[in-house]
Design brief:
single chain; 120 residues; mainly beta; 4-stranded antiparallel β-sheet; 11 strands; 58% strand; globular
């Protein structure tokens, strides 16, 4: 399984970015997908996840600002990030996983990460 993220960059507070993650080597349409982030000195945390059927989950810190979506024809998952804050600064990682009892369960397959930096 290969996951390739893109779309990170430097943006001012209040701005927007859209991250993309393209998967190969897996039956994409049957997998749940998740976006995680890791800031310096902090643990990796789940930002958003989407099931194979399109059910979504978000961290409280990004609700109403981030939107996860998927295009099964392109084997790609996206996260649209609006109203970005300096505290959103982190490396963002894509993951392919599953759902169990309404919770996203990550696999050991991760992308290389893409840096998002939000300046104040």
């Amino acid at each position: 399984v290969q996951l390739v993220e893109s779309g990170g960059g430097l943006v001012q507070a209040g701005g927007s970015l859209r991250l993309s993650c393209t998967a190969s080597g897996t039956g994409f349409s049957i997998n749940a997908m998740g976006w995680y982030r890791q800031a310096p000195g902090k643990q990796r945390e789940l930002v958003a996840a989407i099931s194979s059927g399109g059910i979504t989950n978000y961290a409280d810190s990004v609700k109403d600002r981030f939107t996860i979506s998927r295009d099964n024809a392109k084997n790609t998952v996206y996260v649209q990030m609006n109203s970005l804050k300096p505290e959103d600064t982190a490396v963002y990682y894509c993951n392919v996983g599953g759902y169990y009892s309404g919770r996203y369960i990550p696999s050991d397959y991760w992308g290389q990460g893409t840096q998002v930096t939000v300046s104040s």
